[in-house]
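Handout, page 2. Input:
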Amino acid sequence: MKDGENSVGSAKDNDVVLAKGPAHLGKVTLGEHERVAIALAPDADARIDGRAIMTGELFWQSGRPTLVSAGPVSFFVIDRSGKKALRVKDREAEGRTHFLGLDYFPIDSAWRIEAQWVEFDEPRHVPITNILGQTSPAVVRGKAVFERDGKKFELLPIDEGPGEPLFFVISDTTSGNETYGAARFVYADAPDNGKVILDFNRAENPPCAFTAFATCPLPPKENRLPFAVTAGEKNYRGGHE
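Output:
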């Protein structure tokens, strides 16, 4: 979205064109100090966080951003490298109504690995590039060190805030073949007595495996494993929209 007013709706004359919903839903304004506000059209029959109000501020920095909804379509504000956009969701999208299900490798206890947790003296800011080619720093407070086939490997988790699990963005030699090409996600509980459990059986596809409208992070170079992780979620056979 551009600074100032951005008209939103399904009509082609809008600045932000939705696939469905009211022809002219309203206007989203990007103001000073990164404030974002919305004014709904009187006949839009839309809601702001479920309330039938006409105006409101769209909070996007919290874990639960303000949600605007109209029929099957909803959206909220996201920030990508300092640029604001609307994340639009449609509960009647073909990719959802014709979802083909998920495929997994057989569960294998050998892929549930106890790693050593090495806390950094100071948090590091590691550049993370997303699938659009935008790069921004991510906070990394330590690394998980483990062995596979007699060799030592390290993975860096992105810190997503207090109380959140460790978030690893990984790729391996199955990426682009048996598994999704860009990355898979692995979540792990917080370190306990200097140990972290990496359960690759729980490796999952990012949203961009299912839709072309997601902006998923790509793995940093440290997390590109030079062997095949034959565990977790396989490539989605339905492709994406």
